Amino acid sequence: MGGSLAGLLAAHVLAGHAERVTVVERDRLPDGTKPRSGVPQGRHPHVLLQGGQVALESLLPGFLAELRAAGAPRVGMPSDMVLWQNGRWFRRVPATTHIYTGSRAQLEERVRRRVLASPVISVVEGTDVVGLLGDASRVRGVLLRGRSGDARAEERALEADLVVDASGSGTKAPQWLAAIGAETPPEETIDTGLAYASRVYRGRSGVLDGETLGYYVYPDPDQVHAGGALPLEDGTHLVIVSGLRGDEPPTDDDEFVTYTKRLPHPLLHRWLDDAEPLSPAFGYRRTANIRRRYDLPGRRPAGFLATGDALCTFNPIYGQGMAVAAMSAVALRDALADRRRTPTTRRVQRALLAASRQAWDISAGADRKMPGAVGTAVAGGPADRVADWYLRRVQERSPGAPVVGRAFRSVVTLSAPVTALFAPPVARAVLFRPPAPTPTEPPATPEEPGT
After folding, report:
1. What is the Cα–Cα distance from 218 to 208, expressed in whole angstroms?
2. Residues 6+ apart with CB under 8 A from 21
3. Are 112 and 23 in contact (CB under 8 A)?
4. What does the pLDDT look like over 104-136, one tens digit per residue?
5. How far is CA 327 from CA 27, 59, 322, 351, in A?
6. In whole angstroms, what is the distance from residue 353 CA to residue 293 CA?
7. pLDDT tens readout for residues 254-268
8. C-alpha closest to that of 437 among 391, 401, 404, 393
């Protein structure tokens, strides 16, 4: 259920184990790299983190070379960006990780073309899933209805040995499970009320060219506004600004630019004053973290799995969704290939949840500290408070201390486990050294290696 990244990559994995895989997608799939209406945040910035790159390359060998050939910008962190966090500018030391910042539509189109080349996989487009077949012991398929707009239109059954919910954060699967007598999963939520708006610009000054590919200001509890400009594959930049509940960014043309004055430095506002807007501003407000605990004990049927945002939705401001979709597909592949264990529904579902755990810990951990955060998972225990104290010291030192910055970036880009932050050289810098000096103004150029 669902033909975006999580659904396509799950279908790709299942094609190695099934006679037939059917992807049911409510949208009509676009030709080329056009945004889909079913991806509400599709016009906003997306980044492919290092962990997601490794996973995608493992699933679709040669994919990253294809992405580069299509012009997707590969941005070195922190050397290629002007970055601000916790009141400090990052030193632009040589890159220790890279992100891709091209449009979501470009990346999804290339994944779709590779995956749907399989003769085992077919797509049913323009069709809604409206329910599940089966009972509390086993799901046996789905009920479909064409998207005619008529709720009384005829439904048809599509039988299946396995149903994978990849329908996104708006999934209705919990209600459908209840309708066949199963238990719904407990939900963990954290919602800061964050909202953002994005708009495409073409720079005229040449500031975001050459050695500086983009800007970004990260939010924190003391500075809740965020924003930046990230390069796209056609040479333009996608500009984003964000604020919390009650101070949402406007989508009016002039007010969008004025809102950037809330950032702690006029850098982005000055660039926008001289840049050419190429699109309207689009807003987005559904940014709560939601984790559905299908892994916990309960009366849940065999033959049903959830993945992607249908399992774990992150605040999009952290850019984790595409990486976790790919990492979850790798977890599915590995669970099905494990010859030592029978891939029961619960065992595979636990593997999918584990693939998203680090991203959840990062996103939820940051958001629960933001002012006005609400939800069932906002309150942390004693262990969370100790971790918060240590991570605050990590963040204070990462802009100026290369050894801490390298470890920090490896964890937040999901390419190394959280334990990388406790390696002896990092722990010594975090526990026993003061924060190193950082630039007092936005650094215009990268540092030379060895500086």
Report:
1. 18
2. 11, 14, 15, 118, 120, 121, 122
3. no
4. 999 999 999 999 999 999 999 999 999 999 999
5. 24, 9, 9, 10
6. 8
7. 899 999 999 999 999
8. 401
